[in-house]
Specification:
Structural class: alpha/beta
Radius of gyration: 20 Å
Mean pLDDT: 89
Number of strands: 7
Number of helices: 10
Low-confidence stretches: none
Distance between the termini: 6 Å
Largest sheet: 7 strands, mixed
Order of helices and strands: HHHHEHEEHHHEEEEHH
Helix content: 40-55%
């Protein structure tokens, strides 16, 4: 890619604006930990200049909001990252749900590797925290999808200094199947300076996420985090009819021609 030297005031102004946007994009991405990564968390196939350029407003005005498009297509059409029978974590006499989940997490080695954030701890505390935010049968089943969502999901939300508590949080999401029905599973993780850990998960039937009335009603329920998660996903899924004018690679990023 060649960056031509500006020859007029308007070109100079545009170049300055682009450089500022480059800096903003780079600063934000480095803070989150996604710099030079694609939307699946894998290393980008683009050069640094290309990686920054495709994320600018100017590029998206020309080719469409490819990031939004890919995330929407990933959630709506990507094959499920986990297939569950619906028999996971059925009640066992003498054992709580947290006991069962703790044993399951221990079998997994007590951790999972996220392509975005590295090692994420899976432990009883995380199981308890998620339980404390409300629990139904579907959510109990979906504990078995947490590992896969962290490994293979996309980043749909990031919050610096979450609620002023001194740590950052991120939400990953991916499609899963429960008893052959398609759901979107959301997993929240806490990111401290020294470690990351599983904190919370929710599961929502995919077709309900396209229902504005359902989302509005969900947001008004006492466990408001369910509505927050669903709203995050709905803001992505509203782009189901969005069109883009560029092809994307397996990493979710634009495929650029050398002439650009």
């Amino acid at each position: 890619m060649n960056n031509q030297i500006p020859t007029s005031n308007s070109e100079i102004s545009q170049k300055e604006h682009l450089e500022k946007e480059f800096l903003d994009i780079k600063t934000s991405a480095k803070e989150i930990g996604i710099y030079l990564k694609g939307l699946t968390g894998q290393e980008s196939h683009l050069s640094e200049y290309e990686w920054l350029l495709v994320r600018t407003t100017l590029f998206k005005e020309d080719f469409g909001d490819w990031e939004h498009y890919f995330k929407c297509q990933f959630l709506l059409k990507r094959p499920a990252v986990c297939i569950l029978t619906g028999k996971e974590f059925t009640p066992i006499a003498g054992k709580t749900l947290t006991d069962q989940v703790e044993e399951y997490f221990t079998e997994l080695g007590g951790m999972v590797i996220s392509p975005f954030f590295g090692e994420v701890t899976l432990d009883r505390k995380g199981a308890d925290d998620s339980l404390a935010h409300g629990m139904g049968r579907l959510k109990a089943i979906a504990y078995a999808a947490v590992k896969n969502v962290i490994e293979k999901g996309i980043l749909v939300h990031y919050d610096s200094n979450h609620k002023g508590r001194g740590y950052n949080s991120a939400v990953l999401a991916a499609p899963i199947l429960i008893k052959e029905e398609r759901y979107i599973c959301e997993v929240a993780i806490i990111l401290n300076k020294n470690n990351c850990r599983f904190y919370l998960h929710e599961v929502t039937k995919q077709k309900k996420l396209l229902d504005a009335v359902f989302i509005t009603n969900l947001a008004q329920k006492p466990s408001a985090h369910q509505g927050v998660f669903a709203k995050i996903l709905q803001n992505i899924l509203y782009a189901k009819d969005l069109q883009i004018n560029i092809s994307l690679d397996s990493n979710g990023e634009p495929i650029l021609k050398s002439a650009i």
